[in-house]
Design goal:
heterodimer; A: alpha+beta; Alpha-Beta Plaits; 2 domains; 5-stranded mixed sheet; 31% helix; elongated; B: mainly alpha; Formate dehydrogenase/DMSO reductase fold; 72% helix
């Protein structure tokens, strides 16, 4: 009897638990369904249809919210930039013309360059020099970037292929590979290269930035840096930093293949060959066989006189036999 | 047959220095502490960057590189004394062969470390093997220096095998494990005719092999400079010029080592005045050749005085580096030649003094080759602070440059405390032959 009495009690308790369970699970399901519905609604209300091109070259239309951006890791980004940086810009042969007759030593090129490449005040990718060849020849200002030689002595001596020549004519440095031996600095006859002797200016701020080989930023302690013809700007279809910054129309920049160069100040585009021909263009130290990609137009009919205060410095490098 | 007691005397005389005594401990303690100070200086450079040196963008190679050239240079003496003199049958040089080989091995092995101290990114040394470009003279240098270190080690080891057995046999006072090391290293040497033949042949092969490799290491080192267009480096005689210079500093190093071994190890009967006399003559010979190359190197451009050559030559002859340049030429080259022509000067003590001058001159000579050139690039040095224009080595840099010299002394000291510095087996053999 006692068993019989207990059984219905047990049964009812079991039923109660079952009922509670059903209600509980049911409400959770219902709740999540409502939540999902709200979310779906949210998506739908802000989402738009977009077109995507698949790897199989199929054009599909999908909801914007269904698409997730394929993120690259930092290392993948770096590798992609390094690869792109070595390949250069197809079909181009970059060339620069520096018209010395127009240089007034404004030095806007120097500051624009130092700002873009995060250089210290004493580090020059481009340096405006006070030049004088001999005692009786006039002094002049000469902007000197890397000459981007077609026969680059720096690239020849690099033991690890950290500095390299691209098909578009630019000589770059991969500071993620550079071992800091400075053989390139010793080999460069144009003193175009600088070294990061100390921690770079923005080392702390740029800690997590992905290295861009076409900008050479972030700069790296213990590696070499130099003028890059602003390869990052060229990729965006813009003129180099120094060329755009010049207020005096000193720089022309362009593509040798197109035989066209554009003045950075006036935006005037001229024939490269004609510009050289009409103005007796020349290259620096051609006797070294370096085949530079920077051309100079002589400082004749100067737009501004050479300043007296700079004369002494210009004379310092005079030929000893001539002085 | 010679008297057995005479053999025993030779053996005990030559093995006597192989023990750890008080002065060894003091000397090693001194070297060890100095090395720690220098390594601390290097840790500062690793932390702060090479800004702690006097190097800047224009003079970007300085003391480290001139030190490297000096080390490679000095290591060449192993080839001259052990191989060239050995092969040409100059028997007088054979007691000096091991000293020369120890110097060669120590300097060559440490040269590789010197170059690392000059790297802005030493942790990327592996890149040289991962991405190495065979077109770069640095790759040639890494290859030949490594090869030379290996051959020098073998050239030291192979003739040492019979002596290692003698060490095992005779040095009963040593603890068992030390004696066993000698036993293992002596590769079961029993002195059978067949073994003697193998040793003789392999020594001869090594002697022949080491000559081109030694020439290569210093020629390639000179090409680090000559492969550029820089004034003062752009020279077609740099290879032979460096090689002859190497023999000068190497001979001086051997003379200094001879003096110390003779006095400290009581080896007056084995490193005799005759050896000093011969080494003195050798130093005169190599110095004369070097003088001849020096004359060519400066007179030819100095006669023409082309624009940039003139700048360089003025800086050396009458300008900022004149004092150093003339001191090196006079005290490190001309005076030693003149003095050593007199027989009286070719005695141990005067030779030590002369050799010290020569070796200091040799070090400074490398400095003169490396630095002034970079202070006169083709284009003017402008818009930079004053310390970019004139190179002054910093204290940290000097300490780091001292480290390899200390390391070489440590290696030489330890080696001369574990192996007989004069070949025992050869000395006895030589006596038997002449008897």
């Amino acid at each position: 009897m006692s068993e019989k009495e207990e059984n219905p009690k047990n049964k009812s308790r079991r039923e109660f638990i079952q009922q509670v369970g059903i209600v509980g699970v049911g409400s959770v399901l219902a709740g999540s369904a409502i939540l999902a519905g709200i979310n779906y609604d949210k998506k739908k209300s802000t989402g738009a249809r977009i077109k995507v091109l698949t790897a199989e070259n199929e054009l599909l239309e999908i909801d914007r919210n269904d698409a997730t951006k394929v993120g690259k890791s930092k290392a993948e980004n770096l590798t992609a930039l390094q690869k792109e940086g070595r390949e250069g810009i197809p079909g181009k042969r970059w060339v620069m013309v520096v018209d010395l007759s127009k240089c007034k030593n404004a030095r806007k090129c120097m500051s624009a360059c130092q700002g873009a490449h995060q250089l210290r005040p004493e580090q020059h990718h481009i340096n405006v020099l006070k030049m004088q060849e001999s005692k009786n020849t006039p002094p002049f200002y000469m902007a000197k970037p890397c000459q981007h030689c077609d026969n680059p002595p720096c690239v020849a001596v690099c033991p690890v292929d950290a500095t390299f020549k691209r098909p578009d004519g630019i000589v770059l440095i991969d500071n993620e590979r550079c071992i800091g031996c400075r053989f390139c600095i010793a080999a460069c006859p144009y003193s175009a290269r600088v070294f990061n002797w100390a921690e770079p200016l923005l080392a702390e701020e740029d800690k997590d930035k992905t290295y861009n080989v076409e900008l050479n930023v972030p700069q790296r302690k213990g590696t070499v840096s130099k003028c890059l013809f602003s390869a990052d700007r060229l990729r965006e279809g813009k003129m180099p930093y120094c060329v755009s910054a010049c207020p005096n129309g000193v720089y022309y920049f362009g593509d040798e293949n197109e035989d066209a160069v554009t003045n950075g100040t006036t935006k005037e585009t001229v024939r490269f060959s004609k510009l050289l021909e009409e103005n007796a263009g020349y290259r620096l130290m051609p006797e070294l066989g370096t085949k530079t990609r920077v051309y100079y137009l002589p400082a004749k009919n100067r737009t501004a006189p050479f300043q007296d205060k700079d004369k002494l410095e210009a004379e310092e490098h005079l030929d000893i036999n001539n002085s | 047959m010679l008297d057995q007691s005479k053999f025993d005397k030779i053996t005990s005389d030559l093995l006597k220095p192989i023990r750890i005594n008080h002065s060894f401990m003091v000397w090693m303690g001194f070297l060890g502490v100095s090395l720690i100070v220098c390594l601390y200086a290097y840790s500062v450079q690793l932390d702060k960057g090479m800004v702690v040196t006097g190097l800047r963008d224009y003079v970007s190679w300085g003391m480290y590189i001139s030190n490297f050239v000096f080390f490679v240079a000095t290591s060449l003496i192993g080839m001259l004394i052990s191989a060239v003199l050995g092969l040409s049958g100059e028997k007088w040089a054979s007691p000096l062969a091991r000293i020369a080989e120890i110097i060669a091995l120590a300097f060559a092995a440490v040269a590789g470390l010197v170059i690392i101290s000059d790297m802005g990114r030493p942790e990327r040394l592996i890149n040289v093997f991962l991405y190495g470009r065979i077109q770069s003279p640095i790759l040639w240098d890494v290859t030949v220096v490594t090869f030379y270190v290996l051959i020098s080690a073998l050239f030291l080891y192979v003739p040492l095998i019979p002596d290692l057995k003698i060490c095992y046999d005779k040095m009963n006072q040593l603890p068992a494990y030390k004696r066993n090391i000698y036993k293992v290293l002596s590769l079961n040497w029993i002195g059978s005719p067949e073994q003697i033949k193998i040793i003789k042949q392999s020594t001869r092969i090594l002697a022949i092999l080491i000559i081109p490799v030694a020439l290569a290491i210093h020629t390639v080192t000179s090409w680090l400079f000559a492969s550029t267009t820089r004034v003062g480096w752009d020279s077609s005689i740099f290879g032979p010029y460096f090689v002859t210079g190497a023999f000068v500093s190497g001979s001086a190093a051997v003379i200094i080592a001879m003096f110390f071994y003779r006095n400290n190890f009581k080896l007056q009967d084995y490193i005799t005045e005759k050896h000093f006399d011969k080494m003195g003559k050798l130093l005169v010979l190599v110095s004369l050749i070097y003088l001849y190359f020096t004359l060519n190197e400066y007179m030819v451009p100095g006669y023409k005085m082309k624009k940039f050559d003139a700048m360089h030559i003025h800086a050396l002859f009458t300008g900022t580096h004149a004092l150093l340049f003339w001191s090196v030429q006079i005290f490190g080259l001309v005076l030693p030649i003149v003095l050593l022509l007199f027989k009286k000067m070719r005695k141990p003590l005067p030779m030590l003094v002369v050799a010290l001058f020569v070796i200091c001159g040799a070090w400074l000579k490398r400095y003169i080759i490396v630095i002034p050139t970079q202070e006169h690039p083709f284009l003017p040095i402008q818009n930079v602070p004053m310390n970019f224009k004139i190179y002054t080595p910093s204290l940290t840099e000097s300490l780091i440059s001292l480290a390899p010299i200390i390391l070489v002394l440590i290696i030489i000291t330890i080696l001369s405390k574990v192996v007989p510095i004069i070949p025992v087996h050869e000395t006895i053999e030589h006596l038997e032959e002449t008897k």
